[in-house]
Amino acid sequence: xxxxxxxMLGCGxxxxxxxxxxREQADELAARAGAPVELAGVAVRRPHKHADLGDxxxxxxxxxxxxxxxxxxxxxxxxxxxxxxxxxxxLKAGKSVVTANKALLAEDGASxxxxxDASGVDLYYEAAVAGAIPLLRPLRESLVGDRITRVAGIxxxxxxxxxxxxxxxGASYADALEEATRLGYAEADPSADVDGYDAxxxxxxxxxLAFHTRVxxxxxxxxxxxxxxxxxxxxxxxMGCVIKLLAICERAPAxxxxxxxxxxxxxxxxxxATHPLAAVDGAFNAVFxxxxxxxxxxxxxxxxxxxxxxxAVLGDLVAxxxxxxxxxxxxxxxxxxxxxxxxxxxxxxxYHVSLEVVDxxxxxxxxxxxFARHGVSIAAARQTGEGNGDGSAxxxxxxxxxxxxxxAATVDVLAGLDVVHGVHSVLRVEDLGRKGVAx
Amino acid sequence: xxxxxxxMLGCGxxxxxxxxxxREQADELAARAGAPVELAGVAVRRPHKHADLGDxxxxxxxxxxxxxxxxxxxxxxxxxxxxxxxxxxxLKAGKSVVTANKALLAEDGASxxxxxDASGVDLYYEAAVAGAIPLLRPLRESLVGDRITRVAGIxxxxxxxxxxxxxxxGASYADALEEATRLGYAEADPSADVDGYDAxxxxxxxxxLAFHTRVxxxxxxxxxxxxxxxxxxxxxxxMGCVIKLLAICERAPAxxxxxxxxxxxxxxxxxxATHPLAAVDGAFNAVFxxxxxxxxxxxxxxxxxxxxxxxAVLGDLVAxxxxxxxxxxxxxxxxxxxxxxxxxxxxxxxYHVSLEVVDxxxxxxxxxxxFARHGVSIAAARQTGEGNGDGSAxxxxxxxxxxxxxxAATVDVLAGLDVVHGVHSVLRVEDLGRKGVAx
Lengths: 439, 439
Prior knowledge:
The structure is a homodimer. Chain A is of the alpha/beta class. The first copy, chain A, folds into three domains: 4-131 and 306-326, 3-Layer(aba) Sandwich (Rossmann fold); 140-301, Dihydrodipicolinate Reductase, domain 2 (2-Layer Sandwich); 346-429, ACT domain (Alpha-Beta Plaits, 2-Layer Sandwich). In chain A, 36% of the residues lie in helices and 26% in strands. Chain A is built from 14 helices and 17 strands. In chain A, strands 7, 8, 9, 10, 11, 12, 13, 14, 15, 16 and 17 form an eleven-stranded mixed β-sheet that branches. The first copy, chain A, is elongated and about 85 Å long. At the A-B interface, α2, α6, β12 and α12 of A face α2, α6, β12 and α12 of B. β12 of chain A pairs antiparallel with β12 (295-302) of chain B.
């Protein structure tokens, strides 16, 4: 059989593992693909660092991706440019593409999909979300006969490691981040992870696939974990909850204000300690999917790392190779639904609001009155720390489901009241379809 | 677009849901498949029971599956015959097949696969294992670039409901079975579930897909849960374990006695209470997959029921329809590896053995001596119930990993000893890659 020839862009942690597995499992991969799968070239910026790849190395990425002897381009460089230009060139030249580039897919997946369709080639990217966990193919294919209503989960291992460490030891955010950095779970500049951007990219990809529409990173409401304190973790624990950074993608039925729509958001949230996602610790990922007929499903595994991510890349690569051997292509993305994205302000969730107030009779009544005035119904309110000597007390309010905008307006007013020293924290409470959370 | 026309065989719980979803989601399914997906006919034994299907109904299944206007045959009747003959006729006539028939696939999947290949059509069966959980497609496609080493899980909801009920309430097997029957989780004749045959069929299908080889139901060592007692559940609890009916498929490297091989078995086993599978209660299913590069993955969801199973059938149906619209077919099964199946006697696991013995000095030493004589290394042995007045005591032995045959020979000898009143139970202990089980 004529081999399927692969050009790889980038050769970092994931790329090295792809090369290793392509070599070590060559016979098995050939049997599964229907033809040998061979490396045709590897484009890197600093060829001298990869001497063992010999003649395969090149610094000329644009030349490599359009070379006549290349069938498939595997992209593991990440970032928007030059990845976008290179992949668009490759697709235009009739090469199938396998990429792990979540940022690019979330920003401009539509351009790539259009280019792949124009050439009739495959565009696969299982590795872009939740590493080794087979998630995109199940969404795109296994559940294609069902109606997905929600995808929610832990899709960033760095932040889950930090939050798990804070919960386990009572450590501060800063100390937990330092430990994550020391152990290699966080990068020197942790912003993409801790500010939620990485998870937001993944949420955009998940929402697009799950709801057959187009959602970009800019559509995703994004809050990171920098503001989560040891006190928040303790407050969650007191409510029988844990705090996780969640990506939540939902389909919302039509209502008076909007036709059927979708939403996608990333933020820390309290979830019940009994929920399966609460038990997902350390750098692991897990995603819940709810569909009308299938009910609740969960997918769990390693969300990052060289070998797990390479497993996902190779699964796509063998699938693409097999499609080329058979002369076809796999199922395309479909964005036929073209659903609008619901603004964050209209979403309804529950909230845990913690305030420092003046320790004086009537303050609790003033505070709860502001919630009522904004139409935010309270499930529970309690005041602690009275008589602690400094004249201040702590009020914690847990609401029923309320529109984000109403809650935000309430908090704005509260922050300006004379009797409020400060708003300690505002955390969303998500039961993810489970019962039993206070409130 | 020319519609894709579907013949359905059987119209029970799953079939009714397939009909409902095909009708309610017709527009969405058409958008995803690239053409309308229409029912061409439904073959049932008693047409008068399904009057709402009108002209679609027929009692002539053989005529329906070869009709010129039929593109795809969906089979939800179950059992070996007439399903096998009908599906072979359909495949021979160039129809793609979607089936939920685990018994047929486990007994004679090879014949179906050969017939599908001969005609160049699809044979899909996601619904045959673990209901709505996307599991076969991830094994067949997402992990096709990886090397799966183990698939282990809870794949029968009825037995998991019974074992969960026994663990929660201390109920006997008989009482828990009665409750399961009353609630509709167990059939009037529960043998296929409680004797492990259903799980064994699924194990054969999982092992075949995971290891790219052919494993049939006859290759699967199968023990059910009828012999599990409330005492066993309590003994497991005392060890920090729970008892689950597991299907375990493993790849074994070559050793002195055999080349590389696979094994598949179904039996009750103690697993650590901290293992994610231990938390899978009631009628839910969950499957762990371990692969060399991907590491540990878990898939969780509803393993049975009309709507969840129909979700899996429809996912396959849309995929098959899309393949026909595009003029191709999906990835085939591959059985290129042709690995031998390892005999149960050569497998190595750990055991929890409970004996009633004569309450006399030296008995523990006699018992442990027999283990040693058979080369079975003991992790822990303890004696309880001395001085309980009836002259008997209980000895519990937990072994290190030992060959099944050596353990069986040990137990045979123990049962014949004068000092042994009886062998109370022999249970395997599986840590499934986790640490922390006693011994």
